[in-house]
Description:
By secondary structure, the protein is of the alpha+beta class. Helices cover 30% and strands 21% of the residues. The protein contains five helices and seven strands. It has helices spanning 10-20, 72-83, 87-94, 96-101, 147-156, and strands spanning 40-44, 47-51, 56-59, 65-68, 121-125, 134-140, 143-146. It has a four-stranded antiparallel sheet, with no helix packed on it. Strands 5-6-7 form a three-stranded antiparallel sheet, covered by helices on one side. Helix 2 crosses helix 3.
Amino acid sequence: xxxxxxxxxxxxxxxxxxxxxxxxxxxxxxxxxxxxxxxxxxxxxxxxxxxxxxxxxxxxxxxxxxxxxxxxxxxxxxxxxxxxxxxxxxxxxxxxxxxxxxxxxxxxxxxxxxxxxxxxxxxxxxxxxxxxxxxxxxxxxxxxxxxxxxxxxxxxxxx
Length: 159
């Protein structure tokens, strides 16, 4: 489910969350190539799109949704607020649930670190009054990114 504030209204998020339950849901992002660029008109291949200040991306000159300019650091707390679920439940929907769906989760839930195993960790803080999760650091196998560079790593999907 894309919980970015553009694809589905809060009432629909609540209804789907209540109907499906945590075991049958996952949160994903619809970040387009224009995501992270300054607001304004941009080219997405041969298509002109407009990135609005709130992160919504529309086909240029139209009200039609073309994607979102937000990562999951916006969607996770938005989903939690819209549904009344806890932040930790929403984080699981964006981490463990996709792993399970793709058959990548071979261990039970929870934090498990083992010597010699790859481990990706995202350190964040959250002030509900501000909105999105503030990414503080990203730890990837043999790499560490902090501050603004951590956000760049997440946006680019670098490993």
